[in-house]
């Protein structure tokens, strides 16, 4: 078990290294244009271009450039934006993390709870009209672009029905710090939480239903029936518990991916200045140093989350544990 | 089956976009702020004088619900949204298909090579795929777009201009390669270990014959199941990238860019953003249903499990 | 104790109605071991699943009567059936590798069954589970109880499954090919174990197998199934010494003799089992029977005698 964990962590470091190289290559070595002019942003003056060249060591061999950039991001943390002159990038990125985490956490709770209910109910009533309609709803949830759903939500809660009793409680767009008042924090996030969660509720509900139905065909379920257990108990304690292993794996991956940038669209639509919104704003300004940093931070986070999930998996599933 | 018919219908209506524009007499790609239309026998301006504030701004006309006559209203350039919707749908579908073909092509080559030759080749390719796979798709797409969108890209003989439709095709195609290549590699690997291939090898059948006769047909089934699912995924990705303004570039339209255009008009003229969204949902839904059906028919033990971005 | 009368089980499918069990009647007496043999697909499992009320295929139709201790099981509400299942009638399945839920320890799973049917404390249930594991000869039961199924060998798992089945002292134990998936030495141990436990717990056992050798070792009485019907039944010794049905004879010919020279090849029965969709008219063994004669175009019935066969030869001889 210990060996397996160490091995997994090694792999994680390797992938992190690979990603950093890849990001570096995309930004510094994509054929097409001079990296200095890319980094400096639109219409930069000659002095700025010179400053960029010096700051990133662009006249030096490419591996030196790589180490310079890594040093700026991880060791000295003094990477600066050239579009927003002098703005320190690393602290700006760190500042956004609580916003993104708040958004994703809440959505995650929603989607776990609802998808478990939906998946289990659908599996228990397999082939009934209830099962069918739940699955179609799930499929619709999967097929909606999240940013569009967010806009529809805004249209409904901020404009069309804002003055009715239903949505008059919805505060204007934007994020409120938890420390400034949990209630405001909560209220601003409710609609974004649901918007973000709907895709995953549909997805997980469908996956869980399929897994449960598969599990209910297993031999051990027949044994459980022969023991005289009730169908509910068999479904929840035996089938659901066994399906939960893959559920947890999937969850870990998606949670990581969301914190690491996939929540970007939701953040943009609801004007929540998380890491995704920061990336988006930088995108509009063509501010490459910020994008480089958010991309590296976020993808490292995702990779670490994935590794954590695998480690958890090793601990959770007795079958893997032995290996 | 219904899903397939639905998809073909959508495809056909998008294909008829030029016909529609011609018939309606509008150009969906240039701003026509001073255009007027006949509405209830009255000459009406497409851009109405705003009644709010100082009355200086203009509001585009809302849906008339008359086909060929600004059915869905105009956007903030005074362009016919319905015509743009049809054109945009065609762009979206083209990009999704192009990216799907690109992904499947590269993924098949990579998966086959890695799975069939094994050894060092497999190790190197698998590690590269691991890295790409671990890279969050939107971040990868953003990184690729931002460096390319302004200046285009040239790899050897290939040059893609900035603003070209090939750019989103290329970007979306690349980011999903590992999602397809990894399962294919796995499948090839297990096929290689299967008895009939081992027997063929021991009989001295040349490896390219094994590859084409025994392995490729099996992989093809998997690929077919992937097609509608990847199309659905790519449509969503395209719309997201376009919404972030790093996908399709103006004056071209796609469903994603129209939603973005509609964002500013969301509260006053919601149909500009609603209509393309509904179009995406219906199309993606049809593709997903199609994919599910294909999977049940061709691959009952569902080896194909699609990740998403 | 168990009285099955004219049991019929059919599955409707796209190709038509498939009659898996076609009029099966038998009884199981208190404390006896009834061996049930027949080749694969002859309906052994399905007939006993019907007794357990475990055929929950929506396409299945079950007709006939199954009386257990005087109570009718066919059509019994599931909630009531559940109280019998696991307490009065227990069942062991063929493959011990997949019979246990992988994510729980074997102790948890045994205790779960005890707690389902008896009103005792968790620690008492656990203690009982340890005792049961000791009874089925699992070494270090106090330790083994906290093991997960995958940590045990096939033989050990099957012991755990048996311990679980016996945890509520059922009066009837159905063992569906409990030794088929195990290797030969382990098979012998499990057979010994079943016999010993059957004596200690005074349970009746229905032992399903397609191995005549196993039947010879364990059964008091034997029933031979073919194509969803019982073709011969009788006390073990009588049936082995004086088989009446051609199918039984063929089965007995296919056991390797214990002594003397081994034949080069065992005599296999030529032909294949009948299609359950289009049953042959008349004797279902007819198409493969070397003794077939005119009378066989009618359906032979099982006689009333203790030892009888569903074959027209029986009377003619
Ligand atoms: N749920 C079902 N639906 C349709 N047919 C079924 C179903 N369950 C069993 N059958 C059919 O019923 C017949 C009898 O099967 P059964 O499992 O009882 O055979 P068996 O004698 O136990 O064989 P084996 O030695 O292989 O276990 C088989 O032809 C099988 O295909
Ligand atoms: S009834 Fe006839 S066909 Fe059937 S087993 Fe007896 S002899 Fe053979
Ligand atoms: Mg069986």
Topology:
The complex is a heterotrimer of chains A (323), B (309) and C (317).
Chain A: H1 2-29, H2 35-40, H3 46-56, H4 62-75, H5 89-124, H6 129-143, H7 146-160, H8 182-216, H9 219-226, H10 231-262, H11 264-269, H12 275-285, H13 288-316, H14 318-322
Chain B: H1 2-15, H2 17-24, E1 36-39, E2 42-45, E3 47-49, E4 58-60, H3 81-117, H4 119-134, H5 137-149, E5 153-155, E6 158-160, H6 166-175, H7 177-193, H8 195-202, H9 207-243, H10 255-263, H11 271-298
Antiparallel strand pairs in B: 1-2, 3-4, 5-6
Chain C: E1 2-13, E2 16-28, E3 33-37, H1 44-52, E4 60-68, E5 71-72, H2 78-84, E6 89-92, H3 106-117, H4 122-135, H5 141-144, H6 154-165, E7 172-176, H7 184-201, E8 204-209, H8 212-218, E9 221-226, E10 229-235, H9 236-241, H10 246-253, E11 308-309, H11 312-316
Parallel strand pairs in C: 3-8, 3-9, 6-7, 7-8
Antiparallel strand pairs in C: 1-2, 1-4, 4-5, 9-10, 10-11
Helix pairs in contact in C: 3-4, 3-6, 4-6, 6-7
Please, could you describe this protein's structure?
- The complex is a heterotrimer of chains A (323), B (309) and C (317).
- Chain A is an all-alpha fold.
- Chain A is 78% helix and 0% strand.
- With 309 residues, chain B is mainly α.
- Chain B has a single domain (82-299), classed as Orthogonal Bundle (MetI-like fold).
- Helices cover 64% and strands 6% of the residues of chain B.
- Chain B has helices at 2-15, 17-24, 81-117, 119-134, 137-149, 166-175, 177-193, 195-202, 207-243, 255-263, 271-298; strands at residues 36-39, 42-45, 47-49, 58-60, 153-155, 158-160.
- In chain B, the strands form three sheets. In chain B, strands 1-2 form a two-stranded antiparallel ribbon. In chain B, strands 3-4 form a two-stranded antiparallel ribbon. A two-stranded antiparallel sheet of chain B has the order 5-6.
- In chain B, a hairpin with a 2-residue loop joins strand 5 (153-155) and strand 6 (158-160).
- Chain B is elongated and about 85 Å long.
- Chain C has 317 residues and is an alpha/beta fold.
- Chain C has eleven helices and eleven strands.
- Chain C has helices spanning 44-52, 78-84, 106-117, 122-135, 141-144, 154-165, 184-201, 212-218, 236-241, 246-253, 312-316; strands spanning 2-13, 16-28, 33-37, 60-68, 71-72, 89-92, 172-176, 204-209, 221-226, 229-235, 308-309.
- In chain C, strand 1 and strand 2 form a beta hairpin.
- In chain C, helix 3 packs across helix 4 and helix 6 runs parallel beside helix 7.
- The chains are: A mainly alpha (323), B mainly alpha (309), C alpha/beta (317).
- At the A-B interface, helix 1, helix 6, helix 7, helix 10 and helix 11 of A face helix 4, helix 5, strand 5, helix 9 and helix 10 of B.
- Bound molecules: adenosine-5'-triphosphate, iron/sulfur cluster (SF4) and magnesium ion.
- Magnesium ion binds next to helix 1 of chain C.
- The site of iron/sulfur cluster has 13 residues of chain C, from helix 11.
């Amino acid at each position: 078990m210990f060996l397996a964990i160490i091995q997994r962590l090694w792999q994680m470091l390797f992938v992190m290294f690979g990603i950093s190289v890849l990001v570096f290559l995309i930004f510094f070595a994509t054929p097409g244009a001079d990296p200095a002019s890319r980094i400096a942003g639109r219409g930069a003056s000659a002095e700025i271009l010179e400053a960029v060249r010096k700051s990133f060591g662009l006249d030096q061999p490419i591996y030196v450039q790589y180490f310079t950039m890594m040093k700026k991001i991880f060791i000295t943390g003094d990477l600066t934006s050239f579009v927003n002159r002098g703005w320190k990038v690393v602290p700006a990125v760190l500042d956004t993390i609580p916003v993104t985490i708040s958004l994703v956490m809440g959505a995650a709770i929603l989607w776990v709870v609802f998808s478990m209910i939906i998946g289990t109910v659908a599996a228990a009533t397999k082939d009934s009209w209830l099962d069918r309609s739940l699955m179609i709803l799930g499929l619709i949830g999967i097929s909606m672009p999240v940013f569009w759903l967010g806009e529809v939500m805004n249209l409904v809660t901020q404009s069309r029905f804002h003055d009715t009793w239903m949505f008059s409680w919805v505060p204007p767009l934007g994020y409120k710090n938890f420390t400034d008042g949990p209630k405001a924090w909560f209220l601003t996030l409710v609609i974004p939480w649901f918007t973000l969660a709907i895709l995953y509720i549909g997805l997980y509900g469908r996956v869980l239903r399929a897994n449960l139905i598969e599990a209910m065909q297993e031999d051990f379920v027949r044994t459980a029936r022969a023991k005289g257990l009730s169908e509910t108990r068999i479904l929840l304690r035996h089938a659901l518990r066994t399906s939960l292993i893959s559920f947890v794996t999937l969850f870990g991956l998606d949670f990581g991916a969301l914190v690491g940038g996939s929540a970007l669209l939701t953040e943009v639509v609801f004007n929540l200045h998380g890491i995704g919104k920061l990336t988006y704003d930088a995108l509009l300004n063509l501010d490459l140093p910020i994008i480089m940093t958010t991309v590296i931070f976020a993808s490292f986070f995702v990779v670490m989350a994935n590794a954590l999930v695998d480690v958890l998996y090793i601990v959770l599933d007795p079958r893997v544990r032995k290996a | 089956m219904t899903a397939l018919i639905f998809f073909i219908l959508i495809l056909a209506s998008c294909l008829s976009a030029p016909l529609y524009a011609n018939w309606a007499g509008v150009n969906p790609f240039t701003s026509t702020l001073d255009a007027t239309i006949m509405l209830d026998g009255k000459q009406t301006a497409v851009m109405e004088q705003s009644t709010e504030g100082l009355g200086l701004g203009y509001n585009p006309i809302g849906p008339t619900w008359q086909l060929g006559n600004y059915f869905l209203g105009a956007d903030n350039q005074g362009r016919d949204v319905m015509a743009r919707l049809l054109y945009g749908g065609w762009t979206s579908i083209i990009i999704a298909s192009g990216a799907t073909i690109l992904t499947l092509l590269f993924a098949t080559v990579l998966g086959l090579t890695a799975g069939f030759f094994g050894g060092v080749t497999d190790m190197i390719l698998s590690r590269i795929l691991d890295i790409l796979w671990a890279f969050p798709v939107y971040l990868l797409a953003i990184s690729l777009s931002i460096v390319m969108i302004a200046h285009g890209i040239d790899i050897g003989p290939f040059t893609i201009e900035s603003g070209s439709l090939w750019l989103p095709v290329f970007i979306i195609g690349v980011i999903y390669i590992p999602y397809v290549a990894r399962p294919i590699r796995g499948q090839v690997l297990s096929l290689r270990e299967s008895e009939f291939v081992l027997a063929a090898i021991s009989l001295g059948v040349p490896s390219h014959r094994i590859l084409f006769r025994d392995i490729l047909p099996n992989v093809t089934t998997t690929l077919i199941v992937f097609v509608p699912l990847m199309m659905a995924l790519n449509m969503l990705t395209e719309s997201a990238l376009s919404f972030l303004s790093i996908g399709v570039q103006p004056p071209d339209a796609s469903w994603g860019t129209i939603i973005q255009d509609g964002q500013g008009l969301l509260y006053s003229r919601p149909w500009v953003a609603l209509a393309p969204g509904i179009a995406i949902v219906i199309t993606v839904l049809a593709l997903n249903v199609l994919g599910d059906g294909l999977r049940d028919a061709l691959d009952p033990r569902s080896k194909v499990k699609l990740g998403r971005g | 104790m168990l009285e099955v009368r004219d049991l019929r089980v059919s599955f409707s499918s796209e190709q038509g109605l498939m009659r898996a069990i076609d009029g099966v009647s038998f009884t199981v007496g208190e404390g006896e071991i009834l061996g049930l043999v027949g080749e694969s697909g002859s309906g052994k499992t399905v007939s006993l699943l019907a007794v357990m009320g475990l055929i929950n295929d929506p396409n299945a139709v079950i007709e006939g009567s199954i009386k257990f201790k005087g109570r009718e099981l066919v059509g019994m509400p599931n909630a009531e059936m559940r109280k019998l299942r696991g307490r009065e009638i227990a069942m062991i399945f063929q493959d011990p590798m997949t019979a246990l839920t992988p994510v729980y320890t074997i102790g948890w799973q045994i205790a779960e069954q005890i707690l389902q049917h008896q009103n005792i404390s968790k620690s008492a249930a656990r203690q009982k589970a340890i005792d049961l594991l000791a009874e089925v000869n699992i070494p270090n039961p106090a330790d083994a109880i906290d093991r997960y199924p995958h940590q045990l060998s096939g033989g050990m798992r099957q012991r755990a499954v048996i311990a679980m089945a016996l945890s509520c002292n059922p009066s009837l134990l159905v063992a569906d090919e409990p030794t088929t998936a195990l290797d030969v030495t382990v098979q012998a141990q499990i057979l010994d174990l079943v016999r010993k436990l059957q004596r200690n717990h005074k349970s009746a056992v229905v032992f399903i197998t397609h191995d005549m050798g196993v039947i010879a070792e364990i059964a008091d009485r034997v029933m031979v199934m073919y194509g969803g019907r019982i073709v011969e039944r009788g006390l073990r010794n009588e049936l082995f010494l004086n088989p009446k049905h051609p199918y039984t004879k063929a089965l007995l010919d296919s056991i390797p003799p214990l002594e003397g020279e081994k034949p080069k090849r065992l005599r296999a029965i030529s032909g294949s089992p009948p299609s359950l969709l289009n049953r042959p008219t008349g004797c279902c063994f007819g198409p493969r029977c070397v003794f077939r004669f005119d009378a066989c175009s009618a359906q032979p019935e099982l006689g009333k005698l203790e030892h009888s066969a569903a074959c027209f030869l029986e009377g003619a001889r």
